[in-house]
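stuck on this one:
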Amino acid sequence: MTEVASALVAASTPSVIGRLLGDLAVAYRKVPDHPELDPARKVHAVLLDDSIGPLLVLFTQNHLLDLNRLADLTGRRMTAVAPERLQVLLDKHGLSQLPGLPALVNSPCLYEEHLLQQPSLLISTGEPGLWLEIAQQDFKPLLKNASAGRFGEPLGAITPDLGGDDGEAITRAVQAFTARRIQQRLEATIELPPLSESVRRIMRLRSDPDVTIDEITSVVETDPALAAQVMSWASSSFYASQSKIRSVEDAIVRVLGVDLVINLALSLSLGKTLSLPKDHPQSSTPYWQQSIYTAAVIEGLTRAMPREQRPEVGMTYLGGLLHNFGYLLLAHVFPPHFSLICRHLEVNPHVSHSLIEQHLLGISREQMGAWLMRFWGMPDELAIAVRYQHDPAYVGVDAQYPNLVCVALGLLRSRGVGHGACAPLPDALFERLGVPREKAEAVVGKVLEAEVLLREMAAQFGQA
């Protein structure tokens, strides 16, 4: 049996959708999901809300829903309905996703006028893995009570991040969002806090090949929050310590090791430099939880690499901890617009955050994060890992670092950890790392087996 045939056997149309289309005499054909399906034919449905009431919005997946244009068109400033409210609707019909069928939702409907330019459309069945292909002339009557409008931005019209000078890109973005003339120095313009002395001391220790346990212990013990964090991690069941941890030195020597403690200390100290934003996209993975999961997967992937091409485990782990640091910087530099980015992420789950940020700001969190790593004098490997983490084709200098982050994020997204569309990872990416895809999947599985422990550690990390 072919893979397509297997998918058709495994997936079936939910009864509520079959009955609805049958009652409306709409013909359809089942189409299993696969990467070659044209996003210009895939109908994306999102339920929005405001004080007036809900609104179902339909557009194809080659578009981004621009909430500013929608507000101009409707005179309403709308956001995605709360996940718990949407879940009530889905549970009522026994579905896990919202299909693009207005008759299923008791609310007005607005659709992007480009929707009906396709000869046929693909509608979600309400379950992942299967679409229903409906001819345009058969779908059009389903929109008889809906209104058309132009509120989407074609993804092809958004200029992607093509490299270049990140400092200049940030300057242009800041200029676009500030009324006063930008100052000459970028660091003064965006008012970055300076690195604390504890961070500088940790960085000096990290670059010292002859660092001693006493020196690390001294730095950790001068920061009570950091000392408590190290003790807590070493005592956690994740590291399965056989005896009680009585001191920071105990934690370093007997459980965590020098590299891990330095990396944890550096990441925690940097995290306190820029605080977590109060706003965030609905249903998103918490910041530190995402960081801990990613770092744990990267550690396993690094150890699975052939010894002769294996990079420094401590540095790759740190790249995982700090991979999304640009998110914090984005909230710090553009506070009034960060909320708007969050709302767009909620209604455009099929679009990468980088494209949304480029569309709204002209800059991505990866560009900002990489620039900050360089501005703060972090190792080049970290800046490159942050900058090219979403480019599976990157083969430049120190490519192993962003390649590892790319694989970790992609595999975690395929397991429901993280935000954004789940694009398939190319075989060439695994080949460059020397880690077979099956072995990489096993690494992720092992990490997620410790999910409860990792969440506890991430919660402690966020509170420190």
Notes: The chain is about 50% helix and 10% strand. The domain at 3-157 is CATH 3.90.960.10 (YbaK protein). The chain has two domains: 3-157, 166-193+274-463. The first helix runs from residue 3 to 10.
